[in-house]
Amino acid sequence: MKRNLVLAFSFLILIPTVFNCRRTSDVSARPGQLWKPKEGTSETGGFPDEIIWLKDGAEMVLVASGEFLYGEQKEPRTLASFYMDKYPVTNERYHKFIKATGHRAPYLDEAVARPFNWKRSKHPKGKEKCPVVLVDWYDAAAFCRWAGKTLPTEEQWEKTARGTDGRAYPWGDEFDEKKCNSWLTGVETITPVDRFVSGASPYGCLDMAGNVWEWTSTRKNGLYVLRGGSFFEGDVFVRCYTTDKFRPWARPDSKKVNGGFRSCYILPER
């Protein structure tokens, strides 16, 4: 059984290389059409710190422009401002996308996927607030296009997860099994995206360590970077950064029960 689980969950290809991808948005910010400020939120640089994205109902947080420390060597990098989903895309939000577009429902013809497979375009009962899984990169990209957003680059993902001080985990430098859904937590399956509140990142995003691997837009040789680790990995793979030697990649058509995504929106420069 353990051997079958390892085969089923192992969809990462670890390649000893370093590659970074930057993207800019070609969509202008249109408050009232795309998003609305979350009630009671403050502002930074003229933008609300928290918003509600109208198309998919996502809560999003502002990651303000500026420098942060990237990678194992904490190399200074600078990014423009963007909004990031506070949570991974849930089954509930993904259902809105399927209902609106007729896109295929998450499904994989493997025994380990049965508890996660959708039936007749309906997600598994009781998993509304859990991250959607069994989605490949193309599914994730299609959702983002429908919502008017994009997948984050790995740099955008990392800054959101670790803030500007170069911490190893969203909450600090020491691993804490009580603050994320990793293999060491002992849950051994996906959990609701708001369960580990104490594991929030400096920007207030949850599940950036563990629960599910998350697709990014960063690409190399036909493969895409994944970040965050999942409930099937230990403390090393749920860190905010990757090492100089290995980076987790996967084929864009890979679907697994521990793989999901979140979306972002790049703000225009002022």
Task: Summarize the structure in words.
The chain is of the alpha+beta class and 270 residues long. The chain has four helices and 14 strands. It has helices at 2-9, 91-101, 137-147, 154-162, and strands spanning 13-15, 35-37, 43-44, 47-48, 50-53, 59-63, 66-70, 75-79, 82-85, 213-220, 223-227, 247-250, 259-260, 264-266. The protein has a five-stranded mixed β-sheet, covered by helices on one side. Strands 2-5-6-9-14 form a five-stranded antiparallel β-sheet. The protein has a two-stranded antiparallel sheet with strand order 3-4. The longest helix is centred in the middle third of the chain and has 11 residues, at 91-101. It is globular and about 45 Å long.
Name the features:
270 residues; alpha+beta; paralog of FGE (formylglycine-generating enzyme); five-stranded mixed beta sheet; 4 helices; 14 strands; 20% strand
Residue windows where pLDDT falls under 50 for at least 5 positions: 1-9, 13-29
Strand order of the largest sheet: 1-12-11-10-13
Label the CATH architecture: Alpha-Beta Complex
- The CATH class assignment is Alpha Beta
**Shape assignment:** globular
Number of strands: 14
Mean pLDDT: 90
Predict the CATH topology.
paralog of FGE (formylglycine-generating enzyme)
Kindly name the structural category. alpha+beta
- Beta-strand residue fraction: 15-25%
Number of helices: 4
* First-last Cα distance: 55 Å
Helix content: 10-25%
Please indicate the count of domains: 1
Name given to the CATH homologous superfamily: paralog of FGE (formylglycine-generating enzyme)
**SSE string, helices as H and strands as E:** HEEEEEEEEEHHHEEEEE
What is the radius of gyration? 17 Å
| Largest β-sheet summary | 5 strands, mixed
